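Async update (no meeting this week)

Hi team, since we skipped the sync, here's where things stand on the single-chain job. The sequence we agreed to prioritize is pasted below, unchanged from the tracker. I ran it this morning and attached the output directly underneath so nobody has to dig for it. Comments welcome in thread, and please keep replies under the output.
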Amino acid sequence: MRAHVPGGGRHAEARRRRLRPFGLRTRLVLAFLLVAAVGCGTTAALTYRAARNAILEQTQDTAVTAFRQQVETLNTQLPVNPDGLRTALQSIARQGKPRPWRVYAEYGDLRVSSTDRPESSVLTPELRRRATAIGATHGSFQRVVKDGTPYLTIAVPAVFGNYYRGFPEGRPTGLVLYAVMDLGEEEANIEAMVAAARDGALPALLVALIPALVASRGVLRPVRELRLAAHSMGRGRLDTRIHAKGSDELADLARTFNESAAELERSVTELRNAEARARRFASDVSHELRTPLAGMLAVTEVLDEDAGTLDTDTARAVRLISAETGKLAVLVEDLMEISRFDARAAELHTDEVDVADSVRNTLRNRHWTDPEQIVTELTDGVRASLDPRRFDVVVANLVGNALRHGRPPVTVRVYAEDDRLVTEVADRGPGIPQDVLPHVFDRFYKADAARTRSAGSGLGLAITLENVRLHGGTVVAANRPDGGAVFTVRIPL
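Output:
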């Protein structure tokens, strides 16, 4: 798969890979090596076990068979002659297979051996018990480790070769011969095999690293391209597609991504076209309404002047028409302003202004000078780079909103905080309900659905938000602890 994404994304991707040492690539390689290590270890363990058993069983079978044959050919008369028995034991020891043995004989309390020591500490009570059990004629063997050295111990009872004093053939004579053979050579061979397996494991893992890297690259490259493509789409490049190659699951995922991206691009294009048509419609309607509204406003002004000379019902109708025409004119102007914001045609024409004087002019131009209605706390000497017209709209909308929906007095504060200009407008009303706070800047939002009519256009706070954003600032709505709503505007100085 190949994603059609900007080249800068590859450098960012490389940086992210360096910052994540335990990413998916590392985990895949480690998992591959772990499987290889387990495979090598299991194979080595099974091979070691099979070879060890083969070596020990071959040595054991050879020794047991040879020792039993030697005992069967032993010609010893009873009662036992110690000197003759010792000579026979030395002869058997020399003929030991696959290596010489140390041979011991026990007959009652008599102990004779082919060595200087009549008894061996390697022989266990269990082996003696099995060799002297009633009816034991074939003998037994046992592997024993003594002081770290492995030994093979063999016990074979001597039996009568024919009838003796009425005993049938094969009857034990009471004489038991033991052979002890050092298994150090076999153990050394086994240790050499273990060392060879251990020394060969590291090269095997190094060799396994190559297919691990190749496999991880084959898996991660399409995944990485898919992530880059998703990131590119998240940044608005809806024409991003991935080159799907092959018929595996990753290729199917790439095709699914491409289909989803195409459908998303189509839907977004339709939505954008619909939004553009809606903006154009609002702008065209607002523009077309301005000319007749100008004439209507001129007429209503004349009618307002003559309303006092008319009868009561006609005067009331004239004033209603005048008020509603004014509201309609405000709504049309607000719609045109919102349309400019939506079309990104709104521009800032900044100038360095004295903020306190600007706020005073806004309040004075709208006749908001009654101290019982408006309280100002303006820090003189604060200058900021603002668009005077748009800042006037911000202050006027916030104060007008407080007068309509709150209770006087409305407090207007202006001060500098660090590198920002702060403007606060607070009222003494009931405040804003918590479920309404997230929506106060939404267009045409009504806190009370039953209130279909109001003195405002329903766009004032939305226009305020757009003007503040145009200045690179923020505006938030909240409730004061002692009651009332407060709107706080922060704009860089």
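Quick observations from my side:
Confidence is low (pLDDT under 50) at residues 1-10, 162-169, 449-453.
The longest strand covers residues 149-159.
Reply here if anything looks off.
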